[in-house]
Amino acid sequence: MRYAQIVVNTPLGVTQAREEGVPLAESLRERAFTYSIPDHLADTLAVGQLVWVPFGTRRLQGVVIGLSKTSPVAETKNVDEIVDPRPLLSAIHLDLARWLARTYLCSLNDAIQLMVPIGVEQTPKIFLALDANAPRDQLTDKQAALVALFADKSEIELGDIPRDLRGAIDALARRAIIIKRTVVPPPRAKPRRVKFARLVNADALDLLKPHDLRGMERYKAILDFLANEDGAVWVSALYAATDCTLAHLRKLETLGAIALEEDELLRDSLAGKTFDVVAPPQLTSEQQAAWDAIKSRIRNSEFRIQNSESPITNYQLPLTFLLHGVTGSGKTEIYLRALDEILKQGKQGIVLVPEISLTPQTIRRFGARFPNRIAVVHSKLSEGERFDTWRRCRDGKVDIVIGARSALFAPLPRLGLIVLDEEHDPAFKQETVPHYHARETALELARRVGALVILGSATPDLETYYRATRGEFTLLEMPKRVMGHAQVIANEIAEFQVPARKLRVHKLDADARYLDLPPIEIVDLRAELKAGNRSMFSRALQRELARVLAAKEQAILFLNRRGTATFILCRDCGNVFKCRRCDNPMTYHGTGDQLVCHHCNRRDRVPTKCPQCGGARIRFFGIGTEKVQAEIQTLFPHARTQRWDWDVTQGKDAHEGILENFIHRRADILIGTQMIAKGLDLPFVTLVGVISADTSLNLPDFRAAERAFQLLAQVAGRAGRSILGGKVIAQTYSPDHYAIQAASQHDYRAFYDREIAFRREQGYPPFNRLIRLLYTHPNEKKAQAETARVHHALTTRLAQRGLPALDLIGPAPAFFHKERGQFRYQIILRGRDPHALVADIALPFGWRVDVDPVSVL
After folding, report:
1. What pLDDT, in 10s, does the model give residues 182-226?
2. pLDDT the model gives residue 500
3. CB 126 within 8 A of CB 10
4. Which residues are paired to 194 by β-bridges?
5. What local confidence, expressed as pLDDT, does residue 514 receive?
6. SS3 332
7. 809: which strand partners?
8. Cβ partners under 8 Å of residue 53, min gap 6
9. Is 131 left (phi over 0), alpha (psi -120 to 50) or beta?
10. Which residues fall within 8 angstroms of residue 175, CB to CB, at 6 or more apart?
11. Is 231 left (phi over 0), alpha (psi -120 to 50) or beta?
12. Closest CA to 403 of 418, 384, 391
């Protein structure tokens, strides 16, 4: 008898004893169940497959993670069936899932779900119904409350039952008062089959003449269209070209003129997009030095990318480069050349960007260099598109995958290169379980397949730069902004009609030119108030906006806050209107005239009277992107404005549409949140205005200064990326803060030296690691009691184990104390190895574990 170890796709508590010889920490995180393999599956069951198994009284799906000849338990159930003979996960990805579970202290099932394409797995649904004839005497309070739910419902899905009443279900089911019914829905994602039409008779027109068909001209149009096509044609194309219907096609098929066939059509989100093929430009001397360093290592005989069937067991750090180049220094060209070199070796690459907003521009540039060889992965794709892209990757039909964080798990069988552009961005850390960081996970994946990693940024994460200074990564610096090459610049001078006095281009070498980084003018908003200016726009910013509009150039206004007013206050009693579920101030949105909670998305009408005192003196305070747009329209009525924030980018192609509009100069001023601060190359933008550089500076988070520096430096990098030059105006109430001063001088090293000294003194990363334990509960007293209990248990354990230099900070309310009706309390562990204290602890429901958090708010 052979056995299979299977990770079942269901939430599990830690109830079973671990197997003999298995460390407790591993047992808690990597729980799998042993099943016997029936004879008819003995030759086909394989590691990585998706299977159906009996699990208690249910039938669930799971992934096979191992095979053995013995079982650790005396009695086992049989595997029911194999969902797909092709493994869902490779050995590489299973090994990576184990690393994710151990590192980020999540279940192995949670880690595996990162790699399973959405819509493939089938999750049985349990429905409950009430037997009207069953006796209902002697019910407990909770049983009676559960029965009462069925007063106006014939059936309720298990997930819709309040959590505190679910414990009463089994007792009522045993008494036959409640009847359970299980439904297994079909997979949401499945292959798409479409109809094609093909001409089968060259004399098809002659076949029609004896029949005198009504609408003969339409039949002729169909036949003419097919005659001019090479092979079968998708019927949707026929419908559009000839205005025919399926009935017309079936008639022609009956007459023997055409054949209708059905075949699978892979969905591709890039289908129909064309790219102008671009030849590689000549590199500048700085680019050449960086490229030579990377190319020599790729071609070096010691650098070997292995087939991704099984993981490398010698876990040395992967070959990693930190490409630190100022905005506009030409980092993308280095990525493109590295990918080209990898592809020549028959390998594949993954390019990660932090925001979906960057994907359209990245696709355009990479598609121009590698036409028909790229695929895109992000959350805005349909489930069908993501499923087909996953299959194309698994089958080796894609050479380069571009996308946000989840693109890292694309199943490329010959992975040779991983690029993280804007590697500093906190969006690379997942906010939901498992809280993995794409950068660290990319390094582990590269380590297992022997791939190369390039981390690129103008403002590297402080911990990444620290690792580079210690030799863990190879540091490559590109401190000059590349304008372009002599002939390109000459063409742009003619196209833009730029006077010679405006040119800010300097000679770099024989052929290339570079630009100074745009000057940043710091405006002290305190001085503006003293001068009597109460507008959100300083006098300097108003002057520059007027100049840009007069010159028919473009401007970007950055404010990392959505909406029209950040809070609403009653001037009679001081009451601030808060979300009832989150206890946070609600933001007023002029679009829709409503209050919106930016934490849970709850929406309310704008009150005319205060609910506390009945007063009518309601006042709106603060600003957001909507307010900025409205004020611009008041100041400059003829200016064409466009917003780019979360509220206007919910459609599938919204980001691409906004970017296309601005690139083609259908808007003069782009107003947005942090998504406009990253990686965009917009040649007509000559002004960037930062409405408030203080938004993130004063938050109670040790990374606040770093985030403020990065945002200001990055958004400043959107200005002056062409021969038109550019300028940045940053408004602030803290003009002397070192983060703002360093950003205004484009001096990353000055900021790094100051910040790293602060981190060393305070014991923050990279000198220690953090683990954040966050507990949520709808009852605040219970939340306080539970965090106090766990803190006491951790304090006792710390004393017993004698772990060196490990601090417990808290318990304390989280900065956002209440969200979605849940009170939030946290404990933060700080030390060289906080894992040692909590890796083998099973925390009950309600706790979230965030290893190496990018924010402690």
Report:
1. 887 777 777 777 889 998 886 766 776 666 667 778 888 888 899
2. 47
3. no
4. 263
5. 64
6. helix
7. 828
8. 6, 8, 33, 35, 59, 60, 61, 62, 77, 79, 80
9. beta
10. 134
11. left
12. 418
Residue written as tokens 């300028």?
A: 727
Rounded Cα–Cα distance for residues 649 and 673 (Å): 12
Amino acid sitting at position 667: A
- Mean pLDDT of residues grouped by 10 in the chain (857 residues)? 90 51 55 92 94 88 93 91 92 95 93 89 84 84 88 87 86 87 78 85 70 75 87 88 90 87 76 72 90 91 52 67 92 95 94 78 85 85 85 91 93 95 94 95 94 96 96 94 59 56 46 73 93 93 94 91 78 85 82 82 86 86 86 94 81 78 89 78 87 86 93 86 84 94 95 97 95 94 95 91 86 89 93 90 88 92
In DSSP terms, 513 is beta-bridged to: 484, 507
Which pTM value belongs to this model?
0.83
> What is the pLDDT at residue 20?
47
Dist CA 233 CA 197 (whole Å): 5
* Site of tokens 């306080």: 784
CA of 419: how far to CAs of 26, 455, 674, 726, in Å?
A: 31, 6, 21, 29
Kindly state the tokens that stand for 323. 């490409």
Residue ranges of domains in the chain, CATH in brackets: 3-113 (3.40.1440.60), 125-183 (1.10.10), 193-264 (1.10.10), 285-479 (3.40.50.300), 483-515 (no CATH), 520-562+624-760 (3.40.50.300), 565-622 (2.20.28), 769-851 (3.30.70.600)
Residues 6+ apart with CB under 8 A from 272: none
Q: With contact defined as beta carbons under 8 Å apart, do 804 and 796 qualify?
A: no
Amino acid at 361: Q
Phi, psi of 318, deg, nearest 5: -70, 160
Query: Which two structure tokens, joined as six digits, stand for 147?
Result: 């029965």
